[in-house]
Amino acid sequence: MKRDVMREIDLPPVRRRPRSRITPARIGVYAFLVTAALFFLVPLYVMLVTSVKPMDEIRLGNIFALPLSPTLAPWHSAWQAACTGLECEGIRGGFWNSVWITVPSMVLSIVIGAVNGYALSFWRPRGANLLFAVLMMGAFVPGQVMLYPLVRALAAVELYSSLPGIVLVHVIFGMPMMTLLFRNYYAALPEELFKAARIDGGGFWRIFFELMLPMSTPVIVVAAIMQVTNIWNDFLLGLVFAGSDHLPMTVQLNNIINTTTGERLYNVNMAATILTSLVPLALYFLSGRWFVRGIASGAVKG
Amino acid sequence: MSNVSIRNLQIQLGANKVIESLDLEVGAGEFIVLLGPSGCGKSTLLHSIAGLNDASGGSIEIGGRDMTYADPKDRGIALVFQSYALYPTMNVEKNMSFGLRIAGTPKAEIARRVARAADMLQLGPLLQRKPAQLSGGQRQRVAIGRAIVREADVFLFDEPLSNLDAKLRTELRRELKLLHRQLQATMIYVTHDQVEAMTLADRMAVMKGGVIQQFDTPDAIYRKPDNLFVATFLGSPGMNLFNGRIEARDGRTWFRNEHLALDVTGYAFRQPPADGLACVLGVRPEDVDVDPAGPWRGKVTLVEAMGAHRVLWLDFHGTQVAAIVQDEANGGSFAIRPEHVSLFDQATTQRL
C-alpha cells in the first residue's frame, strides 16, 4: 500500500495517450465491412456507369470502365420512349400505375393491420388466439397457392384486372404481417394505459384513435416502409391481377428488357431498372433510422 | 360518496380461481386498505370493483346499485395505477380531462374541475407538460388528479406509491390522507406496505390466498390478530412466537413450555381453553421488557440501532427473541408484559 503511494508520487505525470485504433480485430472488421459493401455496391456501380454510356462504349465490353462521353439520353428514353411490347412510351406509365397501386394498398393494409393488432392485444375477443393463428398461417402459406382461387374469386365479383382488384389483393396479402407487427407493438405497451382509458369511458374507436394511434408513429413508419417496398417490388401479383391498364412498373420494366428489336439497349435497360428501384431506395435512405428503431422497439420485442 | 358492498364474489382469471367467495362491506366515506403479500388477490379484487375483471359469481354494489356487470365508466369510480398509466402523447391537462371530454362535459366545467384538481395537487405550472417531462412524484400526482377530476364516488388505488422513493412515499402518503379528508370520498387502497396500511386506513383488510383474514381497524389488527398469518405479517420486527401448552392450575391459567411459564389468567379468551391445549404465544417486540430483574435470560446476539429506538435480538434457548429498547440494554434478562400477548391454537392457527 505504502509503496504504491510512493511510486505514484515519484513517477512523472504520464500523459495518457488514446489507445491505438489499429488492432488486428479492427482490421478484420473493416476488411469484412469493405468486402460486404463492395459486394453490394459493385453491381450498382456497373448499372450506373452503363446507364450513362452510349451504346458504342458498351459494345467495347469494359463494364467497369468509366464513361468516356456520358449521356443522359438512355434515361430519357427509359422514362418516356422505350418500348414495352407494342407501345413505346417508356416506363413512366408504369411508374404512375405503381404509385396508384402502392399508396392505397399501403394505407389500407396499415389501417387494417393496426385495428386488428389493437383488437387482438387489448380487447381479446373470444377466439382471438385462434383467429391470430389462422392469420399467421396465412402469412406462411406461399402466395402462389392462392393465385388461382383468388383469380376466380375476383373474377366472380368483377374485380379481376382492375385497380381496386389489385389493391384488394395487396391488402389481403399484407394483412397477416401488418397484424403481427401491430399486435406485437401494442402487446409491449403497458396494459394499464388501456385500462385507464376504459375507466375514463373510452370505447373501441375512441381509445384507438385518441390514444393508441398517436403512440404508434414508430411502428407505422416501419409498416409503411415494409409495405411500400413489398408492393412496389411486387411482380407476380401485379402481372396476374392488375390488368393491362394498370401494370405496375416492375412488370413494365420486364417488358422493356424483354422487348428487343435489333440490338439490346443495355443502357436504357439499366436506366429503367434504376428508375424502378428508386422509390424503395429513396425510402430507405430517408427513413433508415426510423426503420431500425421501429424494428428494435416493437416489431421484434414482445 | 358511496358505500361498496361485495357479496359472495368469485373471480376466475383463466383457469385460475383467484377469489372463491369474498364478502366486504365498505362504508361511505371510509378509507379502506387491502393489505397482503403479492399474489393474494388484492389487486384482482380492486380491478373487479373497477370493472376491469369480470366477476364469475356474486355481486358488487356501489352506492346501493348493482354494478357487478356494469361498464367501468358507469360505476362512479376512479382508479389510480401503480404505473401511473398516464397517456404519453397527451399533456397533463389533456390527461386529466380525457374522461370528461369523452363524456361530453361542457368546456367551462372541464376547465373548472381541472383547475381545482391542479390546485389541490400543486400541478398548476405543469399543466402543459407531457408525462415524459415529469418526475415520478409529479406523475403520480397527475394520476391522482385524473381521478379527482372525475369526481368519482369511490376512489380505488392500486399500490400507487410503490414506484416512488421512500421520502416521496411518506410525503404523498400524508397528502393522500389529507385529500381523503378534503374529498370525503370512499377510498379503497391496495398495498403490500404495512406502514402505508397502518397509517392510511380507517379499517384494513388483511388478505391471503384470495381470502380476507381479518377486517378491522389497524390498531385492533395489530393488537389482536385473528390468526397466526395476520400476527406474523404485521409488525417489524415480527411478533415473537413461542410454542407451548395451556395449563390450568389452582384457578389460574398458565402458558407453559420447558423454558417459559406465563400467567395468562387476564387474557381475554374467546372460549375457555381446554387444559393442555397445544398453543402458540405471540409477543410483540415492544412487549418484551428487557429488565435485569426479569425472570428469563437470553443471550444478546445483535443490537440494531433504528435511531429512535434499538432492536435487541436475544437467543433464548435457540429461539430468536426481538425486543425494542430505548437505550443500550443491560444484559439479556427479560420479562413479558402479559396484557398485550396473543395466544393461538397450534392446530388451527386461530386466535384463542
Secondary structure layout:
The complex is a heterodimer of chains A (302) and B (352).
Chain A: H1 2-10, H2 24-51, H3 55-59, H4 73-80, H5 92-123, H6 128-140, H7 143-156, H8 163-187, H9 191-199, H10 204-212, H11 217-233, H12 236-241, H13 249-258, H14 266-299
Helix pairs in contact in A: 2-14, 4-14, 5-8, 5-11, 5-13, 6-8, 8-11, 11-14, 13-14
Chain B: E1 4-13, E2 16-26, E3 31-35, H1 42-50, E4 55-62, E5 65-66, E6 77-80, H2 92-103, H3 107-120, H4 136-149, E7 154-158, H5 166-183, E8 186-191, H6 194-200, E9 203-208, E10 211-216, H7 218-223, H8 228-233, E11 240-249, E12 252-256, E13 261-263, E14 278-283, E15 288-290, E16 296-297, E17 299-305, E18 310-316, E19 319-325, E20 333-336, E21 342-345
Parallel strand pairs in B: 3-8, 3-9, 6-7, 7-8
Antiparallel strand pairs in B: 1-2, 1-4, 4-5, 9-10, 11-12, 11-14, 12-13, 14-21, 15-20, 16-20, 17-18, 18-19
Q: What distinguishing features does this structure have?
A:
heterodimer; A: 302 residues; mainly alpha; MetI-like fold; 2 domains; 14 helices; 0% strand; disordered N terminus; B: 352 residues; alpha+beta; Rossmann fold; six-stranded mixed β-sheet; five-stranded antiparallel β-sheet; 8 helices; 24% helix
